[in-house]
């Protein structure tokens, strides 16, 4: 039995928020909300899912993690058709926090580690972007921090920006799902030159503000004309929050990815944090929408992967996470 067939890997991958307002399909940020994945080569495929976030996810070979892992093996020229996979996630599905991107990145990195890491991180990034069709979420989960990226249909390029030490995020996660496909279907296929120039200018200013630590410039920069005005109809209360949240303590506010989660960037030293949280929750409640509010730091590390020691391999993912949280 070779080393890879005895190996068990554990992956921890962060959630992500995409667009940050004007950076449609080009800006992303990793957040300290995680999914965990165990993977090992087996005699027969078994997929075990833990946690309420996993409801409805397939547990056979149609599972996304299984299919992505097989793409890695194919690229590396190895054959491992049977896998033992376990996954737990705190990232809600189809809420605009990169749940599919985290699964793709976790599967790519886990499968690569399982066979001795023959693929480079850039190769994994290219594969992830091809699967997701945009680099912002997958890049943020892979590299951590803030990601500025593009994909031209052939190759993705990126630069990682270190988040400012005072930057914090408040997310309002409505208790309903919104598919990326539905959120994209409401967008016009053509945009005006005026809207294009508006977003280029605002996105450029936002990147400059994030790179230079000019938190005061996030408010004017984090505005969008390409997607949020059209998607606002899918998330009641969004338009009011986008307009008014900066007056209640937000540095800037945006729809997180395709939504329905709403993201506010906040100075962690602000004295208005409780005011902002109350405002956002209240606006959604006025529309009859219940939401979970979370304060999250940017994740600066990106995906982590460990090859488990033999004495750790027999412990289930669920038990390992229980011990980690108690500890």
Give a written overview of the molecule.
With 327 residues, this protein is of the alpha+beta class. It has two domains: 3-162, Ribosomal Protein S5, domain 2; 167-296, 2-Layer Sandwich (Alpha-Beta Plaits), CATH 3.30.70. Helix content is 37%, strand content 24%. It has helices at 3-6, 64-76, 99-114, 121-132, 136-143, 180-185, 193-212, 218-221, 228-231, 238-244, 273-286, 310-313, 317-326, and strands at residues 8-18, 27-41, 46-50, 83-89, 146-151, 156-161, 167-174, 252-255, 262-267, 291-296, 304-307. A hairpin with a 4-residue loop joins β5 (146-151) and β6. α3 (99-114) runs antiparallel to α4 (121-132). 46% of the residues are buried. The model has no long low-confidence stretch (mean pLDDT 94).
Notable traits:
single chain, about 325 residues, alpha+beta, Ribosomal Protein S5, domain 2, Alpha-Beta Plaits, seven-stranded mixed beta sheet, four-stranded antiparallel beta sheet, about 35% helix, globular
Question: What is the CATH fold-level name of the largest domain?
Answer: Ribosomal Protein S5, domain 2
Helix content: 25-40%
- The coarse silhouette is globular
Structural class: alpha+beta
Number of helices: 13
Overall pLDDT metric: 94
Order of helices and strands: HEEEHEHHHEEEHHHHHEEHEEHH
Number of strands: 11
Largest sheet: 7 strands, mixed
Specify Rg, calculated over alpha carbons.
Answer: 20 Å
N-C termini distance: 35 Å
Contiguous runs where pLDDT drops below 50 for at least 5 residues: none
Query: CATH class of the largest domain, anyone?
Result: Alpha Beta
Per DSSP, what share of the residues sits in E-state strands of 2 or more residues?
A: 15-25%
